[in-house]
Here is the input.
Amino acid sequence: IRSDQDQDISIRYSITGVGADQPPNEVFNIDPVLGKMFVTKPLDREHRSSYHLRAHAVDMNGNQVENPIDLYIFVIDMNDNRPEFKNQVYNGSVDEGSKPGTYVMHVSAFDADDNTTANGMVRYRILSQMPHSPIPNMFTINSETGDIVTVAPGLDREKVSQYTIIVQATDMEGNLNFGLSNTATAIITVTDINDNPPMLTSRTIPPNEVTGLLLQPQERKDLLLPQVQQSRVSVRTRGFRTFGGVEEEEEGDRRIPRP
Here is the structure.
């Protein structure tokens, strides 16, 4: 900074404000004769992004020769922060048999750098999937939002009940040459749906093994006949013969009585 009157008289320059004579003190300094300002300490935009100082010009007797002027200093961002995931492990689920494009879960990372510049713009990608069955890329991730969706058919809980995915977040809009990266784990559980028909362990019911068995008509249930004296099982009947003391009924509970 220079005063118009420095050609005629000797001028002394000074600065005041936060970062000069107020905490944090002496971040900035000024040569009292030349009026050149210097940064004396490291600046961190994430801690403080701007400073407002006032510059003063006085003669050798301390008399003000110029009105104070405002100095606004803005700290330019550097890419010095890696993206940080909110969680190191994310848990999601998806029904087996889901169609491609089905939403599964969301992951997110925060970058402390200026998000109006590439320094703070985070992009996502999937690094790996385990297991690789039926193919190694069953899922994809929206690079900007962090939403994970299915990308291929073939999810079958009876074959693979859980997938582990490594997700990477990179700043500089995903530029792997210049950006900083971090990773997190996404665990996807494949949830069961009713895709297997009921199976009977036997076509006949020995009368000496399931006495007291209650047969209750229902539309459909998985049926397993336990070896107990009295259990409830669900069947679909179209008439029921009288056998062992059981009367024929169109609807209602059927019970095989104990001898």
Remarks:
- The radius of gyration is 38 Å.
- Residues 102 and 150 are 5 Å apart (CA to CA).
- Residues 216-233, 237-258 have pLDDT under 50 and may be disordered.
- Residues 12-74 form a domain with the Immunoglobulin-like fold (CATH 2.60.40.60).
